[in-house]
Amino acid sequence: MSCKAACPVCLKPHALDNNQAASVIRCDCGSTLFISPKGRLVATLQQDEPPEPTNTAAGTSPEQPVDPIAALDLAVKTSADEAKSGKSKSEKAKSAKGKSASKSAKTDKAEGDAARPHKKPWLAIIGLGGVAALLIIAVTAFLLRDRGQSEPANQRKQTAKIVSAATGRTVRFKPGTFSQQLAKIPLPETEEPVESSTDPAGTPPANQATANSNAGSLDQQSPFGGPTVKRTVSRPVAIKPRPQIPIVPVEEHRKNLDAAYADAFESYEAFTALSGNDKKTTGPQMRDYRHTLGETIDLTQHAYELAMHQGDLQKRNELCYLLAYLSFTAGHVIEASLYGESVARHGDPEESMTREAALIALGAIDEAAATQWGAAEIPGELNQMRLLAELFEKRWPDDPQVDAVWMNLGQRFDAFGRPLDAADAYLSIKKKSEQYDEAQMAAGLAYWNQFVDEASEAAPDPDAMVKRLKSARDLLINGIRSAEERKQLLTSQILDAKYKVALISARLGNPEATVTWLEKTKTPLINSITTGKGNKKKLTVTDEFAQNVFQLLYQAKTRMNDLDGAKQALERLGKVLDSDAADRLDRMSLAVVQRAINRMLEAAKVTPADIKKLEQTIAAIDEDSDVMTASNQLWLAESWAKLAPRGQTPMMVRQCYENAASIYDRTLGQPDFPSASRTAALIRQAELLRLAGKIPNSLQIMSQILSEAPGAIDLQIQAAKSLETIAFQQPSEANLRAAIAGPARNDAAAGTSPIWGWAKLTSQLHQIRYSDRGTPKHAEQLLEAHLHLARCRWLLAGVTKDDAESVGLVKKTRVQLSRLQSDVSGRTDESIAVWSKAIERLQKLLQSSAT
Q1: Of 579, 584, 534, the residue nearest 554 (C-alpha)
Q2: What per-residue string of b and e applies to 311-331 under the rule 16 or more CB within 10 Å gives b?
Q3: Three-state DSSP class for residue 197
Q4: What is the mean pLDDT of the chain?
Q5: How many other CB atoms are there within 10 angstroms of residue 663's CB atom?
């Protein structure tokens, strides 16, 4: 035959067979149980805290968890009643057996055989007495378990004093003192949220402030700002050369130099007469013009040969000059250049003919370069032009045409993608020249172009790159200052030079100089440009140039951590950007936000002004922008959560958490939000709403999740804290009961709310803590839940109108705290110390406030 008996500690039922009488079994809660001869279970000293099942105790509703302290009280009371009942039955058995023995003795005496006295009743009394003593010892050992030598003597006395206090005492709060009573029992809770588990919420966005190629994407680790993109230089399109007039041979040339000389000039006069006739464009007159020019060239060449043979230098130079002119007129530009150079080298510089010959030579070779007379990829004509320019400057150094010659040559080299040759040409212009400032800026720009080309190659020499940048910068500055000294009018070249100086300064790691050149010089660049109609103080520039300027200013301000300035630069940039560039502006704005958040996180406190500026910067980013991905928005939300504890006031703290929660709400509705992270994000949003003081909104989300996953312990803890917060803000019996046992459902669904409350949460945590799944985190969560439950019970005891309930709550809280103190005593780790202090504080409060 079998029977059932419950563990007096955890109330778990055990099935017993008759042959198990007086044996020992082990309960799942860790208690060692002795089976009395009457089939009852008696607990001995246990090493672990017993589990607290939610619906195994008789008479307990499945929705209402079994209170472990009440279970212990019931076990003690049941054991005491059983001991009394056992004693009464032993006495009755002793009396009955005595009478039976007397009757049996009389019967035996008649037969002559007297019976001896029966000893069994005495043994039964002794056995039952031992069982009762063992039960008392077990209960005492249970209450004082895990103490021994490790517990301080004064702590053991204090605990014993609290446990043995009068059990009929109540707690009564005076009206209006609930907040003061609550303030007496703060618990060691950390309101700063943990990192979100929604991936990739904790990952900052990648550097979104990518500059366009003209503004330069800078590598701050490189001494020259990092690699560049090689320029694409397209050679100028060759112009169509003029039709060449052929040379017409004369049948007979005279052998005498003077005669040949006279024939040449006589033919030249005839050609000149035809040249002055405006009607030469007609057919016959044009044929006469072309024929005469061809004969004149032939006669002049013959006379020139005779002069050369006879060594007549004067006639030679005159005839050579004439050949230069006639050849250029006939379209024979290379020949014209050679004839003109010969006169320029050997003629008298004082004679006008010599200078004019040099200019003809320069004009001819310039035309040859424009028509790309030679190989297009080999600028031979430009090299010849450089020789002529050097010759011209040497023979006529003060000639006003010298500077124009060098500027033209530099521009030609620039057009053909030869920046160093161009710079040499520009640098040939002397400081006294009116074109000096223009030449200096042009040379600086040429050096910049050379840097761009060289830095685009693989593994450029850093020192050489830095040197090239500094050379370009210095030349540009010289040109700008020279123009300002001469009070030159604002030109596009000056604007471009200022921009390049600012850009080079940024590449050399000097953002302060960049800002100076853009907005702090005598004529700041940003105040000198407009994309609209220009005026005397502002030049109309392209949208692209304006974008580059303000983007560079934004980058410099950002590197200087001048986030206000960066934001202003973005605002001005937004006015000149077209709609297609809006995403680029959003990326730059997000980069400003990232730097602002990093700076605020480094500070111990953040001000209301900081919060407002950050909100405005974030609001400037279009929510529908491609930049606002789910990943970036979750990063923003978590950044707000990290900033919250640094708020100077509770209102600021709540505002930061509310901002974070609103971003989560918006992000959860995005199509690109990963479905696998949805539940984790909802849990995080609920926590942020709770921290923001939006308790009803938080509970609504948590109820939705817990209805599908009631075993989410972390979320149950959040929900219990939310209910507790409501109870503290709106003190009432109903709200405190909801925090303890869970709220009533506020919808039409049947059953109980999926939110457990502290009582069931404590029970479930107890089971997990002492199971194979238990972790140190569960142990600490169990301590936290116990203390929250004890605090809510004590507060409910102070506000309930039921004296009997108040007495019961006080008693439960006392015993619960005693057991908690026993659990944490002797443990020295820091995480336990804070809980131990909270337990002692609540114990003292109970002892002093009960009446």
Answers
A1: 584
A2: ebeebbbbbbbbbbbbbbbbb
A3: coil
A4: 77
A5: 23
